[in-house]
Amino acid sequence: MATPIHFVSSKLYPKLGRGRFNHWRTGFVIATQLIYFLTPWLNWHGQQAVRFDFDAMRLYLFGLTLLPQDFIYLAAMLIISALGLFLWTMIAGRLWCGFSCPQTVYTEIMVWIERLFEGPPNARRKRDAAPWSAEKLLRKGASQGSMLLFSLWTGLTLVGYFSPMRQLVAGLPAGQTGFWEAFFALSYGGFTWLLAGHLREQVCKHMCPYARFQGVMFDRDTLIVAYDEQRGEPRGARRKDGSKAQGACVDCGLCVQVCPAGIDIRQGLQYECIGCGVCIDACDEVMDKLAAPRGLIRLSTQNAMEQGAAPPSFWQRPRAVIYASLIGSTVLLMAVGLWQREPFRVEILRDRAVMARETADGYIENAYTVRIFNTRPDARTYTLTAAGEGVVGQRLPKLLQVPGDGELSFTINVMADPAVLGKGSHPISIALQDRHTPQDKVTEMSRILMP
Q1: Radius of gyration of the chain (CA)
Q2: Residue 176 confidence class, pLDDT cut points 50, 70, 90
């Protein structure tokens, strides 16, 4: 029978850990936040390096401009990310959760802020249990105020990926922020403060779907944080003469005290464990003091812990090979597509309001609406030609000049000889060529109607 899950609302006060895993966590927090907060400030050829412009329907990515027609590349990136998460989880368990997940990163930052203003865990626990006083109000106010300021800056930075960051910040003192910009900045900042500042580990335990379905991607060779029960049990303290009548675990409880999820790793693999490894640091520190070998709690696999079996190589795990092959194929296809992608696009739509009509020369004329998208930063001039069986001419604007990072829409008329084509719908091709770089050419197919 499945064990019922109970929502525990009591606040955790994890002890500050030390060791290599804690250093790695700190490093990932700093690295991810530097990337997140600094990227909107980077310029590339006079414009923001990374920005999603919904007004112009463009994505700017370090000089590469993507249009809505390039949505396939976004879909490919999402596929790569999903497959990468599946592959990483199968191999390394929940190391993503423990080191790089935004909820983990922001929770860690909020704990740092709380520790700065309110002191170590024991002091915070006693202060929270004590009645309100001037000192408690001052410390709590400074702590929550700092968390709110950080959360609001986080929300503003997110908006900076969609609106020009420098203009956004410059308009703050004068209150020139738009409604939607302010709405999303406040919303994201508010959720950051609520989820990371208050709910914290409850999000990982009860709200995150990844914690629920991760077990499906695990196998017995997946890397997990594991307690060596054969070596550690039965638990007990050392005797005064220095001998040890029981297992290696002295039941000090430090592994539980440092755990940000508040679990006891000695109870076995649990879905609440985020794989952060701080319990390994705490246990190794105790083993060092006792002059005992490290590794009572360690990163290992179920097969290695139970049978002492060496983990299989990457190529001996079919699922890993399949995931890696799919990722590699998707990356290759996306790279080829970007390499062959022209820096401009053209859309051809036959004008349905103007049906086929006869000219003075006896030819049949069809009208088309043409839209050119120029993704280069400088203005470009193009030539357009229509070709196909029976096509005898075309009428279009004399100068097809499109501004840099802009578009141009106009109408063309294509004439064909009905004696050659006959009645019905016939294919034609409309080619657009860059006059500055003639090798850049895009051809679109359309139909010409002959009554």
Answers
A1: 32
A2: confident
